[in-house]
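Re: the multi-chain job from yesterday

Posting the exact lines I submitted so nobody has to dig through the queue logs.
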Amino acid sequence: MGKPLKQIHLAAHFPGVNNTTVWSDPAAGSQIDFSSFVHLARTAERAKFDFLFLAEGLRLREQNGEIHDLDVVGRPDTFTVLAALAAVTDRLGLAGTINSTFNEPYEVARQFASLDHLSAGRAAWNVVTSWDEFTGENFRRGGFLRQEDRYERARQFLAAAAELFDSWQGDEIVADKQSGAFLRAPDPGRFDHRAGQFDIAGHFDVPRSPQGRPVIFQAGDSDEGREFAAAAADAIFTRHGTLAAGRAFYTDVKRRLARYGRSPDELKILPGVTFVLGDTDAEAHEKAALIRRQQVSGQTAIRLLEQLWNRDLSAYDPDGPLPAVDPLPGEHTVARGRASVRMFGDPIATAAEWRALAEAKNLSIRELIIEVTGRQSFIGTPAAVAGTIDEFVQTDAADGFILVPHLTPGGLDEFADTVVPLLQERGVFRTEYEGGTLRDHLGLAHHPRPAGADARAAS
Amino acid sequence: MPRSSPAPLHLAVALDAAGWHPAAWREPGARPAELFTARYWADLVAEAERGLLDFVTLEDSLSLQSSLPDGPDGRTDQVRGRLDAVLVAARVAPLTRHIGLVPTAVVTHTEPFHVSKAIATLDFVSSGRAGVRVKVSGRADEAAHFGRRTVPALPAEGLASAEAQALVADLFDEAGDYVEVLRRLWDSWEDDAEIRDVATGRFVDRRKLHHIDFEGRRFSVRGPSITPRPPQGQPVVAALAHDTAPYRLVARSTDLGFVTPRDDEHARSIVTGIRREQAAAGRADETVHVFGDLLVFLDRSPGAAADRRARLDESAGAARTGDAEVFTGTPEQLADLLQERQRTGLTGFRLRPGALPHDLEQITRHLVPELQRRDAFRTAYEADTLRGLLGLPHPANRYATTV
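And the result, structure tokens for all chains:
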């Protein structure tokens, strides 16, 4: 291959409030104590990762009308914990999901601009929309957005926020004690955004931050999501699949960038992956099977099955066969407030597939759920995992990965100690941070000052 | 632990930009180019902590600073622009150990659900030192930044008119609802809700997680919070109050009010009014602090502070005016005033340094030692939490069923 080696990007996902996170293990620590966040962030920074990532959900999950109690529950406010982590790290990027439905652009823009200042240029924003009235019950605005309006809301929200970020060009403050001029010109930060759902105008009050704008993430694999990412995102957080599927996704998304006048390098593709390491492949697989059983208890299997079936299945035996009844079509009423609900396209067809699989392999409900949900992405020796990661990146199935440990807070330690050095030996992962900002780590240009800024300043 | 002194004096410092005088940024020690860096704020809070102060407050608003009530004022000779106060507090929290952190949150345009979990998280990252000062916004420019509601323009007669009073009362009623939601959400998880019971496979005991079902005129919030009950149970809620409606908010909803008396007599009447409202709200047996706010210019040699203040006023082109009484003098004189003023029923003081870091350092390095010599201020931090420093008990959870 004549091509130079691509440099891999790596990120750490703080373990989430779902059954991927194993809390029953003796090594599992607090999901809310700040020390857990510090531990994972410092591990990621020690390993020279690009960033730490925090997900968000704005209503506790419920199932059958009751708060779901089998998985980890409880997490911090994203902005606040990221700002605190900026104090205990120097270089690590700080990325968080912030919902565009239950926030307003002025407030979110000033929070991200503030976080970027307070971290000296390390902030990133995963822009998502929620659309359910269920979550909306916690907010002034309520929540319902029609499915077709979801990306529209995100697009419009991001456009409004971008106008706010760009409303300061970066040279407004002179702070000249001698002459007494703090500002170069009066009333900086002027904006006027009247489009779609937003009708806002005035003056933004946070000066331009080190990165100009936070790094923008988009999560999701749909056609609309890909287009949104190609138009407006710096990185896309996607689902991991086979090498072939990864390459197809990668090619498709990167191809779309040209339409927006962007080069393929301007959007990084980062699948989220789980991993299990062992001294031998056999040991790793043994550990992986054990973790899967921790992740999917009998009760959890029934709850996960209910999410597809959209029915109360609590009377079923997890060690018995799948229900003979079909899933209930229509709106989900059984499981609310969780992301995976939307992953099932056609519940009746999926149920038929699962039944066929269970029959062919003679699987119980629990075994079937272990088989069909959330299998670990990378299982093997550190050398094998390093090799696979490198292969995915060098053959353009990804630009890097967001690693999802199954244990809080120590779940990344082994990877940092064993896999990262092997990637460094291969010359595909940094041994030191080269720049100070997250845009530097990701090889993204610093967001240029807004076009026409000088003209505007002169007017 | 309670201290032996019957009436410990509580001291806080209000941090804002380069200080409360508009020309403070031009002073020799000022760091105006660093106002938007973490280091600047970390240094100030560390200094306040060295002085054993109860807490710092951090100012905030949702618009550019302005001398006008409804929009930017076109000035280029004063500090404009700021960072989100909650995030500044969070950034500083891991670098400090004892001092309370009380950022300002504007409640008129924000979501109580978000602010509740943000302050709960500040409490987690600071191990129990969080508070929040709730602030209403009647500014038309701030409303336009959100585009969600319009604010009627203030009548020409100003704040005294019946129309303006109704507007203010409405904003503070909403603030009262907001604080109620903050508090319910903080209690929406009982302290022992997380059980991690491997035998039954349950991570939480869902009987100890509570919907809050708040229904108000401006918003309804279902709950529970996504964030567990913070270390203090209830972080400290504060408000600045100048008039009847905010005094009522202080008395009914908060743990601490900042007030701006002109003199001893005024202070006495404010305190009396708040205590009366507090009793009427059925909170007579709860601790509600009332702190007097003072803008301070401090220098050790007599006359130096007055000279400095005159220089600042000249540099600004006008004398500094504002809501709070201005003290100009030596740390010893200020100690005299605080002890005298404390007899009016005020439980502490929030000092607004005229210039930073100068007046802050005068407080921590000279006023505090002077008060210590008089046995009127702590000589070491006696508690690990802000509630502890303020003598507030760990609060019972309103949703917990007593067995």
